TrEMBL record:
Organism name: Canna indica
One MF term in the entry's GO annotations: protein dimerization activity
Domain of life: Eukaryota
Protein name: BHLH domain-containing protein
Domain named BHLH: residues: 48-97
InterPro entries named in the record: AIG1-like, bHLH_dom, HLH_DNA-bd_sf
SUPFAM superfamilies: HLH, helix-loop-helix DNA-binding domain
Amino acid sequence: MENCFAWSDEGKDGSSSSSLKGPFNYIPPSPWQSAKPSSSSSEGRDSTALRIHSEAEKRRRERINVHLSTLRRMVPNSAKMDKASLLGTVIDHLKDLKRKAVGIDCSIEIPAEFNEVKVELVDVGNQHEFLPAACDDKLYIKASVCCDDRADLFQNLIKAFNRLRLTTIRADMMSLGGRVQNVFVLCLKDFDTSSSVSLSCLKRSIRDMLDSVISCSEVPTSNVFSSKKRKSKNILHCV
């Protein structure tokens, strides 16, 4: 037989070491049993992960620097500020803007659906941002007008104030759906504030003057599609 081997002669008398020779099959080791982890491949994976992490960190820092540069352009005198001071200044500025926005929302009056004129005195004792520091010999009046919006309304209101020698200190306007709300702060110099009769007469005069101005915008529903000539005559008559 091809794979059969005989006993050696030296082993017959027992004087010499004997070796057994017989049939056997050779089984090679498995690849996963003989293969050992390569140190070079492990180092390559580590270097790749480190490079990816470094590039991601670089991009993150670049984005942060771009945002900081934008904030520096928005905040004055911030060229030499560090990051913490810059962010603190921006946060304070945003809080101030939010506080002002809330104040504006509370002060805005939506125009009513009906015409309305309000005239009231401004209390000089309270601190108003639109009043000057020295206002002892001046009278301040707040006039509110709500009516239909039209092109010549504001101009006619200013002319009415000038006829009464009133100076406009502040004017706020809110328009919605063809209606407009105008709020004026007016000033009258050299006025005797101790006379209650004069105050009542002045308020009545202002109210009557404003009523005559806004009456020009009142158009009956049946005459909405009237001719332009008739509208112009009504406006001239009211003015």
